[in-house]
Design brief:
Strand content: 15-25%
Oligomer: single chain
Number of strands: 12
CATH topology of the largest domain: Rossmann fold
Radius of gyration: 21 Å
CATH superfamily of the largest domain: NAD(P)-binding Rossmann-like Domain
CATH class of the largest domain: Alpha Beta
Largest sheet: 6 strands, mixed
């Protein structure tokens, strides 16, 4: 089965995802009867391209995203569209695959910590156009999970986001697919790679700035790493986890937040000498009927699972009502893992299509002057 993909954002994650689709083409066809085809690409700086025949992502990259060098339909390639308009236009052109539930918008734009936009609007526009949505952006789940889930249910489409927290580690799939009748009543974890690496380096005497530069050189931390060191990335992940796993209605701004600073170096060293470890811990739990959440440096006993996380390791411990604590550890993260999360969500959609009847086609008309 062919799934038509519209990529919104074409940075490092999306490019690695496109390469993964190419590299695993035979395996996807053999094991899942899945043949993904990229029909649309929207970039922030280089415009958009669209073709029902399919786009060559490698050529798109090689050309520097110059639309004239991509095999794109003329009408779409020449149009100076906003990203929202592009999604609406592209889903309209893909009306046949949308009606057959074979259209997927893959959203990989960067997190906006103020309000989760424009990613939230991208998801809404895609669902309104009859597309499933797969995203690695934390914004939609951290700011609008409930509303977007209801919109997806109303549209009878999937809204999936396994790559939003801890890359490709199946946190949300774990709860959704393998823990029926189990309630998550809290969690704690180390969910930001940059700060965990920096704290581990600082306890060995490496200065804050040097550790941060190393993370930036590895491509883990952004040039502006304030989202990491100020705790915003961890707060967004905490809100997303609480909203999805605990039915909370949080945003990152409702998560109590303390990041890491240069002043923590002596505390990290002293903690290590005393057999403890300083970690930036994300946690959430119930206070009465309400969910509260916090991100802050904590000194942990040496035998705590989270205390044993070094370098770029992450972990999440779920507190459940029936199974006690369930821990999942990620020993390494990067583009491959995040790209895999997008792929795993595609396979989930393909599994759905094996058992669900196609939605009756909707009558949609293309705009005047536009070829189909």
């Amino acid at each position: 089965m062919t799934l038509d993909l519209i990529l919104i954002g074409f940075g490092n994650v999306a490019r690695r995802f496109a390469a993964l689709l190419r590299d695993r083409r035979d395996q996807l066809a053999r094991d899942h009867d899945l043949a993904p085809r990229i029909v649309g690409i929207a970039t922030r700086r280089h415009g958009c391209a669209f073709s029902l025949r399919g786009l060559d992502a490698d050529a798109f990259v090689a050309s520097g995203a110059r639309r004239s060098s991509v095999d794109a339909d003329r009408a779409s390639a020449d149009a100076d569209l906003s990203t929202i308009d592009f999604i609406r236009d592209a889903t309209l052109r893909c009306a046949a695959s949308a009606a057959e539930r074979r259209l997927v918008v893959v959203e990989t734009t960067t997190l906006d910590i103020d309000n989760g936009e424009p990613a939230i609007s991208h998801v809404r526009a895609a669902l309104e156009g009859g597309a499933h949505v797969v995203t690695a952006n934390k914004g939609p789940t951290a700011f609008a999970y409930g509303a977007l889930s209801r919109a997806a249910d109303a549209a009878q489409r999937r809204f999936l986001f396994e790559g939003a927290v801890m890359d490709g580690i199946p946190i949300f799939n774990l709860a959704r697919e393998t823990l029926p009748a189990v309630e998550v009543i809290g969690f704690r974890g180390v969910v930001n790679t940059t700060t965990n690496y920096m704290l581990a380096a600082m306890e060995e005497g490496q200065p804050f700035d040097e550790a941060l530069v190393e993370m930036q050189a590895m491509g883990v931390a952004e040039a502006d790493a304030s989202l990491d060191v100020d705790g915003w990335d961890a707060a967004a992940k905490t809100a997303a986890l609480a909203n999805v796993l605990m039915h909370a209605e949080l945003t990152p701004h409702l998560v109590e937040r303390t990041g890491i600073t240069r002043n923590l170096m002596s505390r990290a060293i002293e903690a290590r000498h005393s057999g403890r470890r300083l970690k930036l811990v994300a946690r959430a739990g119930f206070e009465g009927a309400h969910v509260t959440a916090r991100v802050a440096p904590e000194e942990l006993p040496g035998d705590d699972l989270l205390a044993g996380l070094d370098g770029q390791h992450n972990a999440l411990i779920l507190h459940t009502d029936l199974l006690g604590e369930i821990a999942i550890v990620q020993r390494g993260s990067g583009l491959v893992q995040t790209a895999y999360a997008l792929l795993s969500d595609l396979i989930t959609i393909r599994k759905d299509l094996r058992s669900e009847p196609a939605t009756p086609p909707r009558r949609r008309r293309a705009p005047k002057g536009r070829s189909r």
